[in-house]
Amino acid sequence: MRLLVIEDEKRLAEYLRKGLSENGYVVDVAHDGIGGVHLALEGGFDLVLLDVMLPGIDGFAVLRALRAVRNTPVLMLTARDAVDDRVKGLQEGADDYLVKPFAFSELLARVQALLRRGAPQRAEQDANRMQLADLELDLVRRRATRGGQRLDLTAKEFLLLTVLLQRRGEVLSRTVIAEQVWDMNFDSDTNVVEVAVRRLRSKLDDPFDKKLLHTVRGMGYVLEDRGP
What we know:
The chain has 228 residues and is an alpha/beta fold. It has helices spanning 10-22, 33-42, 59-67, 83-91, 104-121, 155-166, 174-182, 192-204, and strands spanning 2-6, 26-30, 47-51, 74-78, 96-99, 129-132, 135-138, 143-146, 149-150, 213-216, 220-223. It is globular, with a radius of gyration of 17 Å. Residues 127-225 form the OmpR/PhoB-type domain.
């Protein structure tokens, strides 16, 4: 598997190159947006790890250029933790994102999950739309529909659903959901995740026969189509 790391912080880029190489991947590195675009479009990579803050052109511009011609999986790396920046990355077509600082073990797990998922197994998507069964998300219009019916979601519910759909088929713990949706370290005394999932489920699943949002006891939640 060939990976491309586009990261201007040279120490971090080398750290990622070394760690990923030790795990059996062939890794190329670019330190700016322009060089990154050139390699991403010409190199035939299986996955791109893309920093947001880059010299020349930023990661969002790199992502747009890549998505215009390729569906290569992209994992965004960003020091920005604002919800709007995360949503923008998803809108531009990123497959997943990871906020710095991060543990290498988590990055490696994300990389492996994206590569396992592969294009045929991922929910159908383009730069602006994602789909699973009869659920559709339009990331530009910030609209969610199921069976053609509009789902009336709050901003947080939409982001929660987007995160679950981006990582469909994966069991997400309450800790991961809290970190990615609420920018918070999970507090065992806080039931914000359970409340949000319950409210989302009441809109996403309760009116329909087929259930997409499942609870995995003792582990977390997963969005997937389990068939009839």
